[in-house]
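pinning this so it doesn't scroll away 📌
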Amino acid sequence: MKKLWAALLGTATFFGSAAASTAAEPVEIDGKLYRTLSVAEYRDKMKAGWIGQIAGVCWGAPTEFRFCDRIIPDADMPKWTPEMINNAFGQDDLYVEMTFLRSMEEHGLDVSIRQAGIDFANSEYMLWHANVAGRHNLRCGIAPPYSSHPALNKCADDIDYQIEADFSGLISPGLPNNAIRMGEKFGRLMNYGDGVYAGQFVGAMYAEAFFETDVVKIIEKALEAIPAESQYAEMVRDMLAWYRENPNDWKSCWDKINEKYQHNAEYRAWSCSGCDSPFNIDAKINGAYILIGLLYGKGDLDETIKISMQAGQDSDCNPSNAGGVLFATLGFSKLPARFSEKLDETGVFSHTAYNFPALIDVCDSLALQAIKKEGGFVRDVDGVPTYFIPQTKTVPSALASCVAPSEELPSDGAAIRFTEEELKQIKFREYSLEELTAKHFNGFQVSHMGPDMNPGFRAEYRGRQNVLMTHPELREIGAVVSKTVVPTAKSALVLEVSHHLTKDVVGDYLLIVKLNGSSAKELVVSKDSVGADGWLTVEVDLSQYAGKETKIEIVNQPNGWSWEAAYFAKIEIVEK
């Protein structure tokens, strides 16, 4: 203890003010280094981080994804008004992270990933992209981390955890490893690889913002929190290099970002919108737009938000992250009143337990838990309650990629699913296409299905109920409905099939039925081949395979790549 008090006496002068505190040297106690932060200053900076998030998303909301693959013209940039702040309560990049806070508030800082998944599955707000895909998987019974596995989530590299990871740094002052763990838990509900690293990086920036005001140093420190070999880390290094090359022309930097992360397919390999779409919700390019604001804003609150916004794409979420980090470096007490004076502190964020004061209180509580978990503590110094936060080596997660996942899905399907007891806790059960196909089509399963035309189940189509609609994965690869059976001498496969038809569009496709890999029937399903009711009955004799294990493959094969959807009202094995 003598060493402790000697260290404190030697540094006691900086505890009197927030500005001096951030400049303090670490304190050595029993051979360990601790950074110090008064409890009041922590709360002040954490509160500012939330205001920065809120201001960024509310200011940018009118522009969100209206400007893709181009800079927002000056004339289309909205102007900040203090009343904008109350547009926050329905914003997804705010309310989602509050679900994660609630999980920890109710179940403790070390809440399991499975419990976190159950809580996220029970959320009732609107979601998009990786979030909605992850929540759908959870509601279908797929337990995390498999809910985000690229084999089951085609949006796993999207921006989602990046936009909602702010909480992880705001409850981790000086604790990047805690933000990393939050990413491995909450980020893996919906994202994988770079999609998770994006959020871990954002969390680590916040963690450092409690002690550092130089944004370059904040970014460099946060870079230690993600695998150096990842494309996301490559993007961060690019941004630092491009800024140093030309620190006064953000539009020149934007051109470099666009050339590499928008128009180079290598950096959009898991883009849910494809490599050629102007729309790009990939975490890397939007992460670059967070950094372009932080770097070229040069510490100016308005310019930081405006530049991140004007870069385009997800132009409310990106300035929200940038604003949150920068505001946290200053603290609430130093913010201009225009960013918070009109905030309705009684307003509750959509489908959460929190208004603004309750949000600040829960972060206070969780931060204390996180500091103690890492070996830190609270002590009075000159009558000022102060956090002593241990300095530890930052240890990033293992390298993973959506393109080549480092982990395979278990061959045992039960291993990726919630238990029956866990499923009982999920209020909003949904069912996967596999489950619905097995239920309504006697155990047949679908594979090689692409996303075009929104395939899946239709409650009704052309007078039939519970219709399965498939669409091919690629021009060369048809969607397949398959099952292995052992026919009898009287067995036959009976199908009722149709094609796509709307007022303006008529589609067709080649239907192929294969038995043990050999074609047994081929025909074009079109307006000319179906009956007056729009349906065609197809029968395939199975008797020659009697007593033998036989794989049936019903292929929806493209024959022109124009409205190639297939509709199935019946897929049955009958006995003649």
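📌 and the second one:
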Amino acid sequence: MKTKKKKIQFSFWYLLFALWALLLINSYFMAPREVKITYSQFKELLAQERVKEVIIDKEKIKGKALISDERKEQAFVTIRVEDPDLVKELHQHEVTFSGRRENIFLKNLFSWIIPMLLFVGIWVFLMRRMGKGPEFMSVGRSKAKIYAEDQLDVTFDDVADLYEAKEEIQEIVEFLKNPDKFTHLGGKLPKGALLVGPPGCGKTLLAKAVAGEAKVPFFSISGSEFVEMFVGVGASRVRDLFARALEKAPCIIFIDELDALGKARGINPIGGHDEREQTLNQLLVEMDGFDTKKGVILMAATNRPEILDAALLRAGRFDRHILVDRPDIKGREAILMVHAKGVKLADDVDFKALAGMTPGFAGADLANIVNEAALLAARRVKEVVGMAEMEEAIERIIAGPEKKTRVINKQERQIVAYHEVGHALVALSVPTADPVQKISIIPRGIAALGYTLQRPTEDRYLMTKSELIDKLTLLLGGRVAEELAFNEVSTGAQNDLVKATDIARSMVKEYGMSEKLGLVAFERERQSLYLQLPQSTSSKEYSEETSREIDSEISRIIEEAHRRAKEILTEKRGLLDKVANILLEKEVIEGEEFKRLVSETA
């Protein structure tokens, strides 16, 4: 195999720099050292006949003389003074002298022309390194990454699930492949397609698949890359992006994280003429100006559509909105199989069961599960990835990695064991709870000292009032178990209480599930559609009396769930002690073993 030698490109600036360095070395290191003396000292040395030879030019007198040592000649230099008797004195003392005409060109060349050229060369070199382009530092050029037709090997086969989304954008692929199919009927393709959905669900992958299927260039850029500190840069980049896209047409422009650029105007507290809004205005103008018949398709992705400017979403701009949602159980199974193609799997891996354990997981989460399982198998020096590694990877993502080395005292282990068994027994007793898969008191993550893992039997999109009450009872089961076993409570139920309070508050303020307050919604301002952001504290639109009634209803719902959990665990007190002691001994109880223990006791 031949190795390619790295080519060294010749540059005029390299030669100029080498010449300047050579002159510098010659001037400071190779040139003889000259002693500077005054003109009066020169005249004294001349009178003492210690000057041997001199060279006279217009400004200086150089020569050799016995200055400090009468036996050793030294080079000297002095400033020339108008002295009409100098030549006579030199003849008188028999000193060899000569004149020299100064080369003005060489003096100017080495004094300021070469340094100036060197400075200009360094400046040009730095400008080229900082950005190639005709504009200053290339700030006005678009930073979009361009993928050629043969660089994108992503197709719809690589995008598992998302059947509805792929069907929606199939028309875009068909138009780029065969535009006459639509234009001869007078139809117009939507100018922009906005991919909307939670993070990690495959919006960017789907956009690349469109370009891969159509075999056209793909311009990819993030919304945050348009705006810089310089005024007007964002608008210039938008113009440049569309101009370059027209040159490459047919092609696809994809703007990721559109909310960074297209946030609604007028909500900026600084004012309405900031750089971001100017960039957005330019984008709106460009979208109005380009024609889809030329083959330029604009696609964008966001997980915060509620904050986008209305002008972006109107017909004629991003007029097709495509939902890229979290996959259902069948979709999760298909996504797991796609990501596991390059992984050596054992025969016991059940993708359907894994899909059932991961409700609410996005495509990126499922890809992470397969990768974590492969790393765990490699850590355990296994040849294949088994079901145990897959389940362990799911637990790592949900609760964090195990911390077996963490030292926990005996009393705390007992509290954690009773707490987790309390959750499990309540889950087994309420009708709508998911079945228990595992109970563990091995610490995980940052703060989890134990956990009870449940496996959903199906995906749910709605919850009834009875299911929410069962959920509340389940959350309070750990706290009640501590009360029964130790006649005292700990801080371990803090997260359970937060979740229970949120559920009860939503039942009263949002879902109209309070008989006392009736079918009224008291919470109007909602959080982001797809991001788990804290709810904003909006001003209340109800009286203080109603606020007290809301608080009273929330407390009543939680107290009733607490009372119900206490009744369940009081009835199963013997089973609570038995399972807790086994858990303290084994640290982990699987779901099947837990069911067997319960059936044996019953």
